[in-house]
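Please predict the structure of the following assembly.
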Amino acid sequence: MAFKLDSKIPAGALAEKWSNHKAAIKVVSPANKRKLDIIVVGTGLGGASAAASLGEMGYNVKVFCIQDSPRRAHSIAAQGGINAAKNYQNDNDSVYRLFYDTIKGGDYRAREANVYRLAEVSNAIIDQCVAQGVPFAREYGGLLANRSFGGAQVSRTFYARGQTGQQLLLGAYAALNKEIANGSVKCYTRHEMLDVVVENGEACGIIARNLVTGKLERFGAHAVVIASGGYGNVFFLSTNAMASNGSAAFQCYRKGAGFANPCFTQIHPTCIPIHGTQQSKLTLMSESLRNDGRIWVPKKMEDVEALRAGKIQPSQIAEEDRDYYLERRYPAFGNLVPRDVASRAAKERCDAGYGVNETGLAVFLDFKTAIERLGKDVIKARYGNLFDMYKEITDVSPYEQPMQIFPAVHYTMGGIWVDYNLMTTIPGLYAIGEANFSDHGANRLGASALMQGLADGYFVLPYTIGDYLSAKIQAPKVDTTTKAFDEAEKGVQEKIEKLFAIKGKQSVDDIHKRLGHIMWDNVGMARTKESLEKAIVEIQALRKEFWSDLKLVGTADSFNVELEKALRLADFLELGELMARDALQREESCGGHFRSEHQTEEGEALRHDDKFAYAAVWEYKGMDEAPEMTKEALDYEFTHRAQRNYKN
Amino acid sequence: MSNFLCNSSIGKKLVMSISGCFLVLFLLFHMSMNIAALFSAEAYNAICGFLGANWYAVAGTLVLVAGVFVHFAYALWLTIQNRKARGQQRYAVTVTEKGVSWASKNMLVLGVIIIGGLAIHLIHFWSNMMLVELMGEHSVVIAGVEYAPTDGAGLIAFTFSKWYNVLIYVVWLAALWFHLSHGAWSMIQTVGWANDKWYPRLKCLSTLVATLICGGFALVVIFFYIKSLGCC
Amino acid sequence: MNFKLKIWRQKDAKSKGEFKTYEVTNIASDTSFLEMMDILNNDLVHKGEEPVAFDHDCREGICGMCSMHINGHAHGPETAVTTCQLYMRKFKDGETITIEPWRSAAFPVIKDLVVDRSAYDKILQAGGFISVRTGSVVDANCIPISNADAEESMDAAACVGCGACAATCKNGSAMLFVAARVSSLAKLPQGRVEGARRAKAMVAKMDELGFGNCTNTGACQAECPKSISITHIARLNREFLAAKLKD
């Protein structure tokens, strides 16, 4: 049974869609809001802002996070900034320009209406954050400062040093704390959602494991909001936090929610290269560095060899012997091309043999020119904390030698399918932020993830959820002793028992690392039909191994990190296959999805709009069954789909 | 408003700060007074006479006693709370953190040493001076020599001719220096007068105050010891 | 590199804990401290033993989750880094490394090196926010803030809430944490409006939760992974006392 997808995009002119929609949807009166319960899973920018806003409005909110405090969510690690169409720099920015840049950056695989709404509410986010006390960078006149980010020719990124995500999250977390103190929000920390409960076709609660006691607990609500972030950790090595996982989203998929465009993965161009086999995660160096840093590799192979042998330092290579390949290939945007383009360009140079470290998988990000032009103090003020971080990790000072960088998995544009109201294919189940698929198409622009999380949580979901809940005002409190809850809890219980019963030889990390290698080698920056077919077979085999040879220690009824990781890996092992399947069916290149068979003569991504201008929405059919795909056609009424051009 | 001095941590610290400030001011005064003994026994004794069993001096003494009492009682109270807050289980490995003074972590121990020294000091001087007067006596006999209770200079000369007294006082004053070096700055920090610019300045200032007070006292002790040796 | 690790093991909050010694071998010098712990844990799993539970997440020094007391220092001997930013090249080959959980009455141990820091959340819930409703705000540039004030506010806002300050303080005081939030908001005009209420409420909650009294040793700022200055504590004192004297 294929999905009947109704994206509920309002009719009318692009700029009026959101206003018209807001006017048309139902609202819930204050007296009735008090009677309604909402569960929010996740406390990143999306989850925290949504929970706080819904609590303020008068709903009873229960919010869940797996860490010891809502403030730990991985939104906190976003460094560079947040976009908004304020046009404070008088550089001819506008809501339309932000919309257009985002649609184009996403390689025309996002919904026009959603993206326009995102651009429309972006300004309100900045106002909101400033009012909450977010200490954004200021000019000497006391007004807000901006910097530039990839994929844009205007300066529209607001920032708080290299810690913008932290400051925005602390703002949302403060708003959440205010509501927790008010009693409208109840916060469950160290709780992990392990299933969503669906009754009569509607979401009505979750099963969560108390990570301290190991106890499974039931929570009922009139609506459930998933704000659990992305699934980049399927690659084992990524810039995601160690505990970031796709399990909450995956349970929704298992229970019947459509999963859209799972293959759209963002590989971030500026991460610290891998240094050994024992590495646990990759560290991002903010995109903002590309404002002043220039990316290059040597022109001459003998310089590459000398570098690898440690015979010369990169600073000794003469200016004319350096290949600033982004500036060479993309004169208009230069070092500030979008992430997918920058990543592929780095891969192209490394594949050609010009990688600058022993592994051959690194390029330089150099601040020499900027230090000469602006002075060390200015560079220090702009990027000091990032430079210190780099020095701490690599023992090399970026003030003296260029940084070495290489692309790494960073963000997943794909996610749970949602309509214009952010509701999934399961009524009453919503997905916001990175967990959904809607706004970034095939590639996300820098400083847009923060924008989307907060847009969804502060300004979109609080309105749209009322449309659904207005029909629930007479519904009683959800009874958590029903058959649906019994079955969901039993299912989780049995899964945990099954994991303990395997008693095999391999640890969770052993298997996860192998999954990561399969994914990176075959479903990574460049994909082919062969590699994807190979990946599907290998992942299926690895999944069998997991379920027959896993070694799990400890007990189910205690604090058990290994069990947590095993449960997440079980889902990654299915998600990985889904990603490969999605990548296989999408026989074109677009944004972060690059099929080597489909490229222009110059090696750029080649889209096939005639065949693939759709979102691929997958329906779960069982662990070892092939999922079924439904297409949501992406109509471009207001923009002309062109081959992306960052050259001139 | 008033109960915050008893039931909030910063309120209690304010009491420590203000009582401490009062004691610092007293010490400054006492030290200045002692310096007079270096120049003229008569001048010093005149001050002693002025501060004898007069009502204002007695009242002042009582306030001073109250100050010491409050400072010490609050210190004990805070320490008990702090030990509780630290918890039952202690670290197996501890170190002194960078830039943290030894004194700041041992204020109570230093305080106890100071109180001990104070007791000895009171026996040496106060009990032979103001107390004698309060008892209605007009002379006191120490080691076979008769002193008038207002002859502070004589008492000083006698007390600091004994090497062990000198040693006790020097140890006492050293403890006082450490206590003040942290305490004087701390009282300013507690009332909230510091920012990044003033932080190092105030730290320097409080070290100066501690050194001035303890140095002044020590000068008198050592001066009279050397004098008793007949060198000058 | 090889290391001997003396690690605090404790089954759960109620059990009595003890140190156990482990050895790790063949560790590359550019391995991070937590990667070294991963290696140990993977070995333990293969041996059928329970791995060492420790809190960690972002491994970039920003989430504030990691919380180890290493060789007598919160977050280890390096200054201005969290445990996850500590690299094995900073240790001597063959060294014995003692790893303990945060020790503070307000941070009870949950398991091994994992402690309960929910007290910090509770302090912030008491008043660590600006009471502004979503949407009911003015244009961002209507509130000009001097560059210096914004920078100082940001200095304090860099706090990651890891708990190193209270864990280091010999008095178990959370003043640096509370001060960072109060001071950050006090430097902004938006935050001034309810500044008095905030300072009083947060200090009252801090006292209620059993944190100790600040004695201005400065150990917290020395061990703070974000080098937050105790001058923010002075500002908290000022805010609090001014608020109380007005009552």
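Chain C touches chain B through 54 residues (CB under 8 Å). The first helix of chain C runs from residue 33 to 46.
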